[in-house]
Design goal:
This protein has one domain: HUPs (Rossmann fold). Helix content is about 45%, strand content about 20%. It is built from 6 helices and 6 strands. It has a 6-stranded mixed beta sheet with strand order 3-2-1-4-5-6, sandwiched between helices. The longest helix is centred in the middle third of the chain and has 26 residues. The N terminus is likely disordered.
Amino acid sequence: MVDSARSNGARRVVVGLDDSVEARAALRYALREARRRRTSVEVVAAFLSPERFAVLDRVPVVADRAAVATATQAAARSVVDEVLAADRVEHPDDAVPPVAVRAVAGDPGPVLTGASSDAALLVLGHRGRGRAATTVLGSVGWWCLRHARCPLTVIPTATATPAGSAATAS
């Protein structure tokens, strides 16, 4: 956890981030919620460690975990900076909530539910791959719905829903 990103002692809003349109929408929602709650945002980017790929794909480890973490965090920070720039244009009179970015090795579902342990809200984007893909690949959203330790908001696929709508579970 990143204490420096907290403001006024309130529990933070945690958002899962990758390089998808849906994750960007989730970050925008998390920023609005953090403003409303007068708290901070913690962006969590999960990545599979090189050791895991070596086991799964039976290939030698060619990347260092620290290097992958650094690259993942840099990529997440780039997405965050892009969304924050747009947010400043959209809300020029509002202060931007403090934002911390973390890259964490592990499967996204368990990583995000772990981060939710002392959060006010967990926010995810929903890609909507369909039932077959979810069955084969699993679903971060389903995992978080079952295991999150705080309320969960899933931002639907941008093309499928009107702006501002979200599904929330507590």
